[in-house]
Amino acid sequence: MAGDTGSLVVDAFQAELGASEPWPDDVVLYQQYQAEQITFPDYANCLSVKTFLYMCGLDFRVEVRTNAEEMSPSGKVPFIHVGAFLVSELDPIIAFVNSRGFQLTAKLADAERSEMRAYMAMIENILVNAELYLITKPRYGCPYPWPLSSILPLRKQSEIQARLASNSWKDKTLSEVCEEVRTCCQALSERLDQQKYFFGDKPTELDALVFGHLFTLLTTSLPEGHFAEIIQQFSNLTAFCKRIDEQYFKQN
Amino acid sequence: MGTVHAKAPEVTPTEDDIRFERIPARVERVIVEGVGRTKDDIIIKEVRPILESSTFQEMVQNSHEVKRRMERLGLFKQIGIFIDTCKDSGGQTGYEVTFEVREFRPVSGGINTLIGNNDASLTRGYSCNFSKPVNANPDILLSGGIYQFHGSYPWSGYKETDRGVELDLTFPSFLGSHSLRWDGVWRDLRALSRTTSFAVREQAGHSLKSSLKHVFVRDRRDDTILPSRGSLIRLTQEYAGIGGNVEFSKQELEVQFNKSLFWDTVVQLSLAGGVMRPLHSKDEVRINDRFFLGGPLTLRGFNMKGVGPHSDGNALGAEAYWLCAAHIYTPLPFRPGKGGFGDLFRTHFFINGGNLGNVNFNNLHGSLRDVGSEFRWACGGGVVLRLGRVARMELNYVVPMAVQQGDGVNPGLQFGIGLSFL
């Protein structure tokens, strides 16, 4: 607990310091090798963070490292290196970027902002767990020599299993998981309706998060992945993914 | 002092005054009790000299010699000798010798916590080892083990967990003692805190080192901590890259020379140096394999690992170093506690210098000149205390004479405790 409090203080301190400085030119985002190494929930997280930064109009460079996960201060990818600061994972990065004066949600009413938070929490709870559920044997160990190439994936897998067990996703059947995903997509599809973004015609961090996860699930071929089929049933969501991909990634 | 008036009693040959070397003895049998796993042929080979004794004295001496040899073999943790007359034998001269032995467990292990070399570094871990003489020769020893330990290295801002397997063969040659060791170790390196320099953080992650190391030692000193004469040569060669993803070769040399002068004064000259290079020129040697320099027992006058490349206060280490030192040791002034506690102390005056830097093998001459020219040196004096037979403690007053920009300098009083020193 002492460590947590310490890091909270550091975070607060960093946020305070950060407010006075502009966005430097040499911001770097660190992640693992996309094709070979990264597990796809991590890939989705990286994609969400990149989308969020593009939406804010902030420049950054992507650096791929085998040891990105171990380098990260929280042990999770992605993390960004801004001046003297290291910030990892989407929520702290959003808070950090906001503290520098770049906000996507400035025009939203308080009620809308809490609605957005609720949707983001839903994605964290359902889509992320569903992605973890599908990981059977990650290719996570391939940059390492034997025997680490087999030990490290096993270790990662037991971590994931422990996390799934802690929120009672471990015992779900595949069809139950698919049902959860369908419910989640249904809710998102209804919220999006025919709008350009979830909250009108300006993007928010919810758009970045949804795009990161849905696009990853749509484009990754999984051994028993029915998730892509489920998402494709919601035409406004696929159109949304396509639109954001073209707008922020094709041009960059 | 009073005077004692007494007369020595007349020495008369009595029955108490037995000439043991004249008493004939014949060892009828040797019994070794408590043997479980130890092979018979080894024991038979060891005890055979006892059977060849012809006098009582010879028998006792041989028994002791056999006990000593068996202790050196490391087979038994306890050996007791009993000598008795042999009941079965007809004559007066028949004896039987009984060894009561307790064998070692086949595998030994340990859990340890160690606060190392005078710094905040902390290692804790556990290990499990076995060792065995080869061909029943106690000088050739094969040992192996598995271990795990956690260490933190605050001067560099990282911590590390090591899990490994090692195999070691120690053998003598006419030059000195050799040790050939294979080490396969999985190292998990992490940044120690959020303030760790990014240059160190970039090194975080898993690495697998499989290395073959040869250590040659020729130690002709009369003591390891406070020698008064003799010399030491230690040559270490390490080749990493037999499997694993850590690839480098490393050479290290340490030489020490001691000479006694008048009034128990000892002059000691030491020199150490090392160089390493990655096997592929585009690679870089990792921080946990590099050399570091500085500290109260090596390069006095500088902070622990305070010399050489640093980033945000974290020592990064380098691929080459050299270090030399000259000491003059004398007993404490006025020699308090002479012959007892006072002999654990020495006063010394020293001058030490060295450098740490990276070597560019494409421009060998230039980088060697840099490592040789921009060196640091310091001089001073203080008190040395010997701790047991393995460690020593020093309290010195040091004046750094040449420092480079970025060095962690410690002028004035400096306190050090540790196992390795120069």
Automatic annotation (TrEMBL), chain A:
InterPro entries reported in the protein's UniProt record: Glutathione-S-Trfase_C-like, Glutathione-S-Trfase_C_sf, Glutathione_S-Trfase, Metaxin_GST, Mito_Protein_Transport_Metaxin, Thioredoxin-like_fold, Thioredoxin-like_sf
Transmembrane parts of this sequence: none
Superkingdom assignment: Eukaryota
Signal sequence extent: none
GST C-terminal domain boundaries: 109-252
Name of this protein: GST C-terminal domain-containing protein
UniProtKB/TrEMBL annotation, chain B:
UniProt entry tagged with the keyword Transmembrane: yes
Membrane topology label: Multi-pass membrane protein
Residues covered by the POTRA domain: 25-102
Membrane found in the keyword field: yes
Keywords, alphabetical: Membrane, Mitochondrion, Mitochondrion outer membrane, Transmembrane, Transmembrane beta strand
Database matches in Pfam families: Omp85
InterPro entries the UniProt entry points to: Bac_surfAg_D15 (IPR000184), D15-like (IPR039910), POTRA (IPR034746)
Domain of life: Eukaryota
GO cellular component, one term: mitochondrial outer membrane
Subcellular locations according to the entry: Mitochondrion outer membrane
Assigned protein family: Belongs to the SAM50/omp85 family.
Protein name in UniProt: POTRA domain-containing protein
Organism taxonomic ancestry: Eukaryota, Metazoa, Spiralia, Lophotrochozoa, Mollusca
